[in-house]
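Hi U.,

Before I forget, here's the chain from the pilot set. I'm dumping it here mostly so it's searchable later in email.
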Amino acid sequence: MLNNYYVNAEHIKFRNDKIFSQTEKVRQKQIFAPRAKNVMAYVKKAKIHKNLAVDIGAGYGTFCVELMKYNYFNNIIAVEPSRDLANTCSTRGINTVVDIFEKTNIQNIDLITCFELIEHLYSPKKLLQKCVESLNPKGLLIITTPNIEGFDLKILGKKSNNILAPNHINYFNPQSLRILLENVGLRIVDIATPGKLDVDIVRQALLSKKTTLKYNEYLKFLLQNNENKIALNFQKFLMKNNLSSHMWAVAQKV
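Structure:
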């Protein structure tokens, strides 16, 4: 049922036809170019083979396009279950497989990327087990997912725009994600929360009256302080201590 939802949901077609196409340049510059740069830093440090990279849940294909610019991998494949989004990937010159990754037979992969996906799945472990089966020895898996212990999610709780169904049904924190990845046989390279928006998200919630923080006046003072340096330093503190709501995990097949 869930797979069928992501294949046929009308809102996914709407995103492909309207939202993604109209916001492509901004998302490319602010999200996907930096994301590809970070991925390539891990790739080069690990010195993995250059044959094949696979992006699971490739969406509009923007990450694949950015990764292709590095001319590092001989082949890059987008795996996307939505036919509308998969067609967009194909028209952008990306080798595309229209299916969920668990049903594919792609082998000998050197890099698998999986951005903002595992929180959508009933069984993230099944996907990760398939990733391990499909990776070459020393191959990398790089994923992003919300950190349920992140600042804005903790503060806003059920009022957070991130807490929504049927899209997000599983949440992780750095420790639980580490356990999951190690349980499927991967070695942890890095788990970090490099998010930059926690403070802004809670500040906007205050301004819109979505939250009041009436029992935490000091935090309210910090967030409403006009000194940008204070907010910036607080966000850096969250990032450094794995307390941002945006989480990266990098793991390697041993």
